[in-house]
Amino acid sequence: MTDIYDIQIKGGTVVDGTRAPRRQADVWIKDGKIAQVGGEAPGEAKQVIDATGKIVCPGFVDLHTHYDAQIHWDPYCTISGWHGVTTVVLGNCGFGFAPVKPEYQERSLLTMTRTEAIPYDCMKAGMPFTWETIPEYLDSLDARPKGINCVHYMPTASLMTYVMGLEAAKTREGTPAERKEMKRLLDEGMEAGLMGFSIQRLGKDSTQADFDGTPMVTDTMTDAEVLNLAEVLHERGEGNVQITQATGDIKTDMQFLETLAETTGRPVLHNAITPTRKNARVHRRSLDWLDRARSKGLQIYGQAGTVRTGFCFTLEHWNLYDASPAWREMTTGTKEEKLKKMRDPALRQAVIDETEEADRRLQVIQAGVGGAVPLLQVQDVHGTKSLEKYVGKTLADIAAEENKNAIEVMLDISLEGDLNVHFLGPDRGFNADFMAEIINNNDYTIPGVSDGGAHTKFFTGGAYTTDFLKWLVRDEGKITLEEAHHRLSAMPAQAAGLVDRGQLREGWAADVVVYDIDALGDGDEWIGEIVHDLPAGEWRRIKRAEGYQAIIVNGEVTFDNGECTGATPGELLRNGKSRSASAKRKSAAA
Asked: Which of 50, 143, 514, 521 is the most buried (most CB within 10 A)?
């Protein structure tokens, strides 16, 4: 009797994620698993995908996303889901929506509107709170139809607020009893399926502040409080930590990450390594440190910001100048409060002074956006006739014409345009040679930091996989296909502790991507396009994917030549494992 398989991917070039040389082979899929790669045909298939001339590779793993809210109304976690990502990691940076007491539900939404720039109205309309604890939250997420796999960290800010209350968590250390309870809840969460915990430590002048402009709960956590949680991972012998730390003392930050890795005995995912256009010293210092840490036996991975995308923003939705106290004060609050503050002469002068006298952190942020504020260009005035004369001009140009300060110009036209004026950062310039240095010369740097689901009105990092392949592999030839797919799939899966994901191997999960490298693209617009597809009529910027023939999750096609099939085979991977694997573990334990 002839064996019947679900899918045969026929005639493609297989790049399996292991760094093995590419080869032409058929891939057979059955019951959500890779049944065979290459060899004689084992039977017949219900569906045949002709992959002639195409690349067949494992689905991509996006380690750094903020789709925690969006997954409730968008089961494919787009932008990422369009661009070959088959597994996303949620709960990054210490931010999330569980555990949460009923009285803090509203505050958790407000926090995410600021620190991750996710629109309040769409979260309020699209994410019903049906949980309080982490086990309840994971059960809710597990039951929700998904077109993509997901794994989840314990968001440390949520944990601290749950145990201590918001005000206490922001103003003091936890008591011995509170620390003990946080350890218990983290252990309970990992027993329910969490992959570890996440944390942001950016100090008192955090560049990702809370809704009221104060630092996030975790920004001022002590080392001892972090290491208290680290002990849970050590005791369990599983999980990992995602940490974004930049307190202003690089040597101290590096030393603490080493201590954290030593205490846990587990992988630590460090955010982020991002090269500049001209100065190699910045990223080489990070790479040298990672080399030293590895020589000590410490599992520290560097997540690299690799995506090329522009920043186009309005001052209504902007939060990336929060390293400046004056900017942070001016751009927090409701729209009406922001408009009022922009008319305050004293605050306006403070913003001008702090921008012109920018400290190192504000300089870094401005460079990341494309350059100093005067270099920003007026991109769109959204129908305000009196401002149309400014479109296409930089703030410096307008300031020279009107004999004003460039920042004063920015504030004035924002006010006149009712905060609907869009400012475009110039091309920051990207150095392919520096990016290749970061990726090619070690076994612990991972491309990404997409921030998918966050900064929805001015950033489109969820397209990083497509950009990485078309830029560094196809156009520049700096990275081989074999290395690229190892970094996009196998390495992040390993770092995250995912079981049977990230490689095309017999018996492993059938998360597969078929694409045409010559046709690969993410749209013509540097800054993406605006679409109104969020709950409550909210809008976001997106970059659509081009060149993907098929995206397959757990053996089912979710996107066929860019069209969504409506299939929802995605799973919550508890402790990095599929539902069936988790069930077997629980059965064995019983």
From this structure: 514
